[in-house]
Every structure is written in C-alpha cells, then in structure tokens.
C-alpha cells in the first residue's frame, strides 16, 4: 500500500519501496509510520498509483481511513483493523487523515499460508504486542530463533483473525459492471433487481446467476455491502448519520443504524468512538533490554 509506482503523481517512499522489494532478509520486516515525509511508512492524506510489491503487507492505522482498490474489487481499512495485501498483487490506495500506523512486510515464502486475496481482519492485543517487538528488529538481516518463533506467532494471529465485511468485489462482466458502477454512483437508488436487469439488458435470472458467479453473493447482499462501504467513508469524513442514511435511501436514520449494527455489531457512533479510543499500542515504547 504505501509505496508508489513510477507513474504515480506522488513521490515514492524509497525506504519502504526498498524494503518491500527485498527477496532476502528476515521473513517479516516491520516498520512504524507517520505523516512525516521522511517516515519509512508515509501516511497523511494522499493517493498512490497502481503498484505492487514483492513482499506481502499487513498494515494497520490508528486514525483516518484507507481505501484500497484491486482489479477485482475494493475494501476499506478503518482504524485499529489490519489490512492484508498478498505479494505481487496490483493495487492502489487513497489515504485520508492517517497520522500513524504500522506495516509488516512478509516475504513470499512466509506468505504462502496466508489468505490469497486481500482482506481486513481484527487486531488482537497479542498482534499489537508482536508488531511492537518486530519493529525493533527491522534493521536485522537475520533473526534469532526466539524472534523467528515470535514471527511465526504473528503470522498465526493473522491467519486466525476474524474477517470483517469491508470488501466490495467487482465483476468483470460488462453488463454487471455497468450496474455496479451505477449503484456506486447513486447508492440510494431503490430500483428492484428486475428493474436493474432490464436497464442493463439482462433477464432477472441472468442477473441473479451473474451475481453469484462473479460476486459470490446475491445482488441484494452486494448492494448492502456497497452501502456499508459508502457509509464508512462518509462517516469517517464527518458526515452525520442522518445525511448518510438519507443518501442510502433509508426512510429513517434508525433503519440505517439497525442495518449498520447487524453488519458490525454496534451502532455507527460506538463503532467510530471505540476505534478512536482503542489502545494506542503504537506509540512504540522502547522494548526492555534483552527482549527477543
């Protein structure tokens, strides 16, 4: 996510670019980031062009929002959640108001047992503590046996972490893609499946079949997912629940809040308040002497 291709309008972060392209070295390289221009993992508010890395990336932010796009869809990374981008996957990112966070670069061989597709997962206290340890090793070419064991535990934590419903798959079929783009442009459009099918020159049965084949879910599920993505982006920008509810076509804000709670287990206010006040394990206190 953080390094940038040569075609991007933003200057590349050479320090992270070099680390993310390392074929040798330790299985995990962890770096701490901030909005400062000389940070190894530069954040702030910016956009990257399409790019990819030799190493996979596990990254987490403490504030703001990151929107990552791939050829097959997009997903959002809110604060105190971890995003995973597999090695060699082309992607681009929009970074909004992110002041601090961390990034763990995973060697291709170490990433073989990790998810093959990008995802957003929960971050446990153990994962936070392991990342703090790993940042202290970032200058080492060879890890000690104890550090290798801790690296393996960190990868186990990622494998077992619960996935969050923040991914929005995109189709390749041109007719379904036309519908998807129209829904994203106007997420409150209340047209039925039959109406959307007729608009795109499809039968309702064909649209239903295409959604399952290309999106892995029903049209109604995909449209709700698109609404959640829109809601998270809008709420992160400071828009009110009432305004977001209206944009998504809900009759009342309480109906929108109920949908949000079903998806995330809590109300929008609590969702963002908890993430704003989540433990800031990331102030990177010094590790005690002799820590592995």
UniProtKB/TrEMBL annotation:
InterPro entries per record: Homeodomain-like_sf, HTH_AraC, RmlC_Cupin_sf
Keyword Transcription: yes
Domain HTH araC/xylS-type stretches: 174-274
PROSITE patterns for this protein: HTH_ARAC_FAMILY_2
Pfam family, one: HTH_18
GO molecular function, a single term: DNA-binding transcription factor activity
Keywords recorded for this protein, A-Z: DNA-binding, Repressor, Transcription, Transcription regulation
Gene3D superfamilies: Homeodomain-like
Stated name of the protein: Helix-turn-helix transcriptional regulator
